[in-house]
Design a protein that fits this description.
This is SHOCT domain-containing protein. Helix content is 43%, strand content 29%. It is of the alpha+beta class and 141 residues long.
Length: 141
């Protein structure tokens, strides 16, 4: 995601961390944050542009990204909210059972989500996705 200014901020969201890169005239500021350190994500929407605020639970400074197109900001917030929810569920499993619940089913779910993302981006066809999903189901059984 990129903010629409002369030196726009770039936010890149990965599986377990995100990076924010801000360019200025003579320097570049780069912030990396794990998804487990995110407390909440706020979206302040205007008519055309929005501001995304990522609240950090580790005590570091909160991150604000201004001048982001509204649909792009909503999509980024949805992705970050989904990652927050996954971290929360993983934390509950760890507290209840004493260790993180990493099973083949969890790996299956991650792979399935990744393949679904590839279908959405047009990198994989729907039939390819279905074939790989069926193969993974057979391996689990």
């Amino acid at each position: 995601m990129r903010a629409h200014t002369i030196f726009g901020s770039n936010l890149r969201i990965y599986d377990d961390y995100l990076t924010l890169r801000r360019r200025k005239w003579f320097n570049v500021e780069e912030v990396t944050m794990t998804t487990s350190n995110i407390a909440q994500v706020n979206l302040i929407a205007g008519v055309f542009f929005s501001t995304i605020q990522i609240v950090n639970s580790s005590g570091a400074q909160d991150v604000k990204i201004h001048h982001v197109w509204k649909p792009m900001a909503r999509k980024a917030k949805a992705i970050l909210d989904q990652k927050l929810q996954q971290e929360h569920v993983a934390g509950i499993d760890e507290r209840e059972f004493g260790q993180p619940q990493q099973t083949d089913l969890g790996d299956y779910e991650k792979s399935l989500n990744r393949m679904r993302e590839l279908v959405r981006k047009g990198k994989m066809t729907e039939t390819e996705y279905e074939r790989k999903r069926q193969k993974m189901l057979r391996e689990i059984e």
